[in-house]
Amino acid sequence: MPHDAQGNRASFASDEAAQAFDHTIEGFLKYRADTPLRLKAALKLDGEAPLLHAMKAAFAMLAYKSAHVPAAKAALEQARALGGNEREQRHIAALDAWAEGGQDRAIAIWAELLAEYPRDILAFRLHHFASFWMGKAPEMMATVEQALPHWDGGMPGYGSMLACRAFAHEECGSLVIAEAAGREAIRRDPADLWAAHAVAHVLEMQGRRAEGIGWITGLSQNFAGGNNLLHHLSWHQAMFHMERGEFDEVLRLYDTGFRDLDSPITQMQPDLYIDCQNAASMLFRLQRQGVDVGERWLELADKAEGRIGDCLSAFTLPHWMMALTADGRLDAAGKMLEALRDYARANTGENARIVRDAALPCCEALLLRARGQHAAAVQVMRPAIGGLYELGGSHAQQDVLEQLFLDCAMEAGMEADARLLLERVTGRWPTPPERRVGYAREAQALR
Predict the structure, then answer these.
(1) Which keywords describe this protein according to UniProt (predicted)?
(2) Which residues pair with 9 in a beta bridge?
(3) Domain parsing of the chain, residue ranges
């Protein structure tokens, strides 16, 4: 039986088909824009390989868009009908759980798979991805540390394992280990977008802004052919400029980098969750600093209104609400709140609970803030503050929700709540609030 590049036996019709699978996996790991075409070519070679149909389902789910779920389920039905070995069937079971709303069950199945097959890089990468978007950073770190001893440094995919080690450790606060792993992955492959991204996070956390700008711009010559993660790296570059008060450069990067509406990548997926998170969170930050962002909220609000009721990405929901309220669409914002409540009531599983306990309070706070009810916004968001990590997203991304709470507390004159928030960020970020643009004014005022 053929096997993949990491030595796992798989149900491929030929070695050529197995190599096409490996080529698709490499594109997935390295965030290449042509990855869907790689999968299409592999399926053309072997239309009866269960793992290829499972990957088709995974790619549909990775978009975090409810309209793509039927395609994922159809691909899984085809994969199940093809059988496959025990490992492949467990892959299908994990993706089936995800498609049915059971992300926590899917993560558990991938973890079980990795305990037996630590070089199953598809299971590893899906576990890493899904865990991140459910706020499970400790699980990300534990999984990579358990798997790595079973890998050889010359094995295909090892650099991507290092990149994931870098990001997992960064999110768990082990910044020295994170930076070393990320830089080693980049030494092996300067085009490794996930490794470049992980080191950018370390530099962000430590307030190393000039280094951060140099890190991204210095590597950018290697990034041709990347997918939407390029937008997120551009967002990180803008975040470094934001911290330096270089708001014109932030807006330039917004228009030509992470929210370039003329980009073929953006046009292919105009409402991709992470791209819209990048855009909404940056506009929110800019407006807090008194920057005129012009009409940039308009197209985001259009996208947000079109996604009312789609709750697959809990962390994206407050960003949709930012767009609706910033553009004055308060009626649509009210409809969105009702849709979140309906979803939380009608569904079981971890995501429904997270939407109810974390996303909904943030969205309610944004609408109350838009109505000038800042004290009520603080009151509705306060019980959720300790659990916002479950929404997923990195420390750098979640920062915008903490700024929301701080903004409302200061507007309401609720100094105790403002101090609570500043203490939270002081405990987590090596860079003190006085040196961070979103907190410095408030930290000075509360001295």
Answers:
(1) Repeat, TPR repeat
(2) 3
(3) 1-151, 296-447
> Residue type for 158, please?
Y
Nearest partner of 340 among 327, 351, 324, 329, judged by Cα: 351
Residue 349: pLDDT band with limits 50, 70, 90: confident
Residue 75 structure tokens = 């691909």
Would you say 177 and 184 are in contact if contact means Cβ atoms under 8 Å apart?
Answer: no
Closest residue by Cα to residue 310 from 72, 65, 58? 65
Which candidate, 118, 139, 120, 116, places its Cα nearest to that of 129? 139
Q: What is the per-residue pLDDT for 348?
A: 87
C-alpha span between 44 and 394 (Å, rounded): 37
Closest to 167 in 3D by CA, of 214, 222, 127: 127
Alpha carbon distance 314, 212 (integer Å): 29
Write the DSSP symbol of residue 262: T
pLDDT of amino acid 343? 97
Q: What is the CATH number of domain 296-447?
A: 1.25.40
Q: Tell me which architecture the domain covering 1-151 has in CATH.
A: Alpha Horseshoe (1.25)
Percent of the chain exceeding pLDDT 90 equals 99
- Which residue intervals of 148-294 are DSSP H helices? 158-171, 175-188, 193-205, 209-219, 229-243, 247-253, 264-268, 273-288
